[in-house]
Fold:
Amino acid sequence: MPAAAILVCEVVTGTFALPQLENAIAASEFRHDFFGSELSLCKYYFERIQSDGVGFIRIASGYAEGTSNGKVVLLYGEKRAIPTISLSAAATFAIGQAGTDTVASGISATNIGKKSALLLPNSAGAFTTGQGIILLFQTTAGFIDIIAEI
Structure:
């Protein structure tokens, strides 16, 4: 079809919305991808980890580095490049140890890689240094965005 040509399609019932035209003599086979494949391709650029609307969802585990701070490893799908990480407010996270959850007073990300990052949560809590901790969403507003867009 030459440039600026007018294409007319007659449809008895229904409508064409945003048709995709190809610059070719014959149409190529339509590609049918599985949802999981498409999702994996999207997550290569962006991924959001968020609360499921209930709260107290476990995100990552690690250990208490001191009585008020810890280190946890966050794992995510491989990104195309080293991503930036955006976190919701510290108060949307909690740090759990020995059955007690304490609201985080701060949280940051470091050692960010294509598949994982080290999160550094802290609070005024009384943790036992060296013991295991978990990081949780403690409200429904919690999220972690992993962004590797072009």
